[in-house]
Amino acid sequence: MHQATAPVFTDRALVSRQAILQGYTRLLVNRFKDSTSSALALRESFSCLQDTKHNPWIELLSNSLGESILWRLIPAKLRKMQSDHYATTLDKIQRRMSSQVM
Fold first, then answer.
1. Which domain of life is it from (predicted)?
2. Over residues 8-35, mean pLDDT
3. Per-residue pLDDT, 88
4. Residue 33, number of CB atoms within 10 A of its CB
């Protein structure tokens, strides 16, 4: 994944997209300003920016967002197949657990 995304984050690539990045950064900051306390419900700093250390909770959140984005890149037909497989497996497990014979 790193190899596939690395070219997007070179200095040249970032400079060429500076206006776009600044626009989204302004939008993000404005959303934080406009939001109520629900956006920052924990009211607690993770000190990631100050300490330049990863917080496990933030890392977990980032990973789950990445998986969500990757999930959308999978063709709909494959997502449907995976969903059907999961539903069938879950149904079989539930029937097995509800049966008297273990």
1. Eukaryota
2. 82
3. 92
4. 8
* Dist. CA 84–CA 78, nearest whole Å: 10
| DSSP secondary structure code for residue 9 in this structure | G
**Predicted structure pTM score:** 0.34
**Structural contact between residues 58 and 48, judged by C-beta atoms closer than 8 angstroms:** yes
pLDDT at 37 over 50: no
Q: Which amino acid is at 6?
A: A
Looking at residue 48, its amino acid is: C
Question: CA-to-CA distance for 85 and 38, rounded, in angstroms?
Answer: 37
Residues 31, 24 contacting (CB under 8 angstroms)? no
Name the residue type at position 22.
Q
